[in-house]
Amino acid sequence: MPGLFFSFEGGEACGKSTQVARVVRKLESEGHQVLSTREPGSTRAGEAIRNLLLHSDQGISLTPGAELLLFGASRAQLVEEVIRPALKAGKVVVADRFTDSTTVYQGIARGLGLKFIREMEEFVCADLRPAVTFLLDLDLETIRNRRLRRVRPVNGPDRMEELPSEFHQKVREGYLQLAREFPERIKVIDAARSIDELEAAIWKEINAILG
Domains in the chain and their CATH numbers? Predict the structure, then answer.
């Protein structure tokens, strides 16, 4: 497909959403047609699933298996309704989370294993993979401090954020494990740096691809 696909990954409070917004603005200022997405979400069905997974009282008792399938359902809709058409139209797609999140959060941190998750990824995405994934890596203490300073979302606490520190440590270790497995695609970025320094490091990688 003629478009270009970047994804951003990382644990809670690592600065993904801020950097996605900055990259989108920079790409647009250079004349690129850009589409940003978030997971779960970015479609009507996906936003309803997002609310159930992260904010709704009805989602509190979701089992890990149900959680996994709901993330998969949201992604399936997003891929077919939004991402593939955008890439076919030659746009740059910048994703705030994609398949690596499911691998790490549900497969590794939840302990569901990777076999079925990778089969689901193949079913949902087929040959669709980001050209580059930026992994914003942050230690647990910094994550904790940033979360204390964070403005809470208007729709209430994020169910995943509220999980214990042990879970978030597994998330970090899982992401670094993936980065070792796929070093050509996953670029580890030290997210403890300032917002501007982080943007410069990310843009250096993107610029190399754009030429």
Answer: 4-210 (3.40.50.300)
